[in-house]
Amino acid sequence: MTLLHAAGLGLSFGSRTLFDGLTFTIEEGERVGLVGVNGAGKSSLMRILARAAEPDRGEVQLRRGAQVTYLPQEPAFPEGATVASELEVARAPLRAALEAHAALAARLETERDPAAHERLLAEMAALSDRIEHLGGWDTAHEARRLLDRLGVPDWDRPVAELSGGARKRVAIARALLTRPDLLLLDEPTNHLDADTVDWLEEELDRLDGALLLVTHDRYFLDDLVDRIVEITPGAGVTSYPGNYEAYLAQKLEEESLASTAQHKRERWIAQEVAWLRRGVEARRTKSKARIERARRLMAERGYQRPRAADLRLAEAPRLSQVVLEAHGVEKRFGERTVLRDVEVVLQRGERLGIVGPNGAGKTTFLRVLLGELAPDAGEVVVGKRTRVAYYDQQRARLDPEQTVYEAAGGSPPGRTGEDFVELSGKRVALRDYLDDLLFPPTMQRMQVKALSGGERNRLLLARLFLEGANVLVLDEPTNDLDLVTLNVLEGLLLGFDGTVLLVTHDRYFLDKVATSILALEGDGRAVRYPGNYETYRTLKEQAAAAQAPAPAPAAERARDAPAGAGAPEPRARKPGKLSFKEQRELEGMEAAILAAEERKAALEATLADPETYRREGGAVAGMREELERLAAEVERLYARWQELESFLGGPA
Q1: What is the domain-level CATH number for residue 474?
Q2: Which of 329, 455, 476, 639, by CA, is between 20 and 30 Å from 397?
């Protein structure tokens, strides 16, 4: 069944048309990835679909009664909002349904008219279905689970006091709790660490509703979506069935099928272009029809073959033997130690990816290395020939009031003469360089504040690469970039002769670019792993399994002993072995979980049955308390099962 239908959408800003005649449909339960180059209008389209903005043309039709939840790149919160109040907002539809259900139950107890009684039972049945759709009867437990996993422990804390990453986590929990029919997510992984991105991917995979996703995280697109919709600047959309890998395969097939005809077509176009440029005298010998046909084909060629941003690096001095080193570095903020005895030695050609949970000190570490923050202990050594270019994730170096041309280093308006840059030993006009970066002359006159997030990102990278650096320090450079530009950036870094320090949550990017990983553990320690992100995850899991503590049988006996009994000292046992009692517990665990889930499901069905409220009356409150207890018991059993299985699977 069709959930959303957008027909003939058009949107322009001044003389710039983002899209026109855009039409597409989302079906119930469908998972769609929205892709396109920066500035194509992805975020603007999401706002229109969420009814947060109006198109210039066209309309959006939503299935009657369907609920849509929209998570923008930068979520907004009302003044004075707390974590708890935002979760209450998310649960408001469910709370209203529960209250309406309780009110109907009370009316059932006093209703004597058989016809009215049947109507009330039918309404209660419909409300029960809605309550199940919105998450069921046990919502407080679900909210707590989400916030605990997202690392937001303080329910009463004002949202305004939270960091950008913590605010994004609250917004994600709020969106997930609404259980919408359609969830619109615009770059949901920004500000999240890689482990949380993994968790969010699993959480979204379990959702029942439809999903429309804008993200630069290609693993997200590959694992979550079953259709890719590509938006083309100034035009419409093209739909590709399958995930990101299938989308790439279809694009490649399109190029392959068109290659022979395209070669002949481009040769003919080149001949026509040469003729058109010969001047007025030559044009008199050709018919007007041929002139118009040539112009039309030239325009079509420009439309059909969109360019990728041509990111290039200015020449840099060769690095000396010492590049950048940290020895015993510590950094504290008050009583909290963010960095503890960190040792890092960087070599020429290394590309070090830095990962860790939010708040672990990734940006702090970069700022200490760059001399922006002084370490409280240890030292930082910078090579004599080391020249650093730093990309900060806040884009603080861009003045929103400047034009694109000025922000790239060009002269302000009023000055005559051309500005030039040095690239690969050649002198290139700045205007031509910007044009190669997909900033044509009309955009070069625009103010920075009029650009999309991805366009600002591309502009800052272009400016950074003109600095002639041999060490690139990049803090979340992938945020908001389109997939084509990401691919170009990857290629540039892979071919870079210098050294790269890279903080990013983009697992795909780290897998392709990083030669080693520095993991900040959250307690101030830093551990270095060889290889890319996937290698790091494997090595980390192996290390955790090898170091997992083994619960001692004596400790188990002490827990089971009566109150006041003496507790003997725990006695170590060989890892990988279960006690007889634990082995019996493991053998019966699956049956115990199944039984608990069956009791929970039966109680949920009872509470969903309107007849329960007529028969049981005041016993319903006790049933709800029992349901919460059973939900906690099921979760405890699963955790215990995982604990026993993981220990049994450890090394003997």
Answers
A1: 3.40.50.300
A2: 329
At 407-443, the pLDDT tens digits run 888 776 656 557 888 876 788 888 888 888 888 888 8
User: Could you tell me if 381 and 503 lie in one domain?
Assistant: yes
Residue 32 sits in the same domain as residue 160: no
Is residue 173 within a helix (H) or strand (E), and if so which, with residue range? helix 164-177
Domain boundary among 177, 195, 221: 177
333 within some domain:
yes
Report residue 328 as tokens. 């015993």
With beta carbons less than 8 A apart as the criterion, state whether 192 and 169 touch. Answer: yes
What is the DSSP code string of 297-329?
HHHHHHHHSPPPP-------PPP-S--EEEEEE
Domain hosting residue 506, numbered range:
324-402+448-544
Q: Residue 375 has what pLDDT?
A: 93
**C-alpha to C-alpha distance for 640 and 394, rounded to whole angstroms:** 43
Residues 196 and 341 in one domain: no
3-class DSSP state for residue 8?
strand
Q: Give residues with Cβ within 8 angstroms of 48, minimum separation 6.
A: 6, 9, 11, 54, 55, 60
pTM greater than 0.70: no
CA distance 533 to 537: 6
On whether both 391 and 500 belong to a single domain, the answer is: yes
DSSP one-letter code for 79: T
User: Are 495 and 472 a contacting pair, CB within 8 Å?
Assistant: no
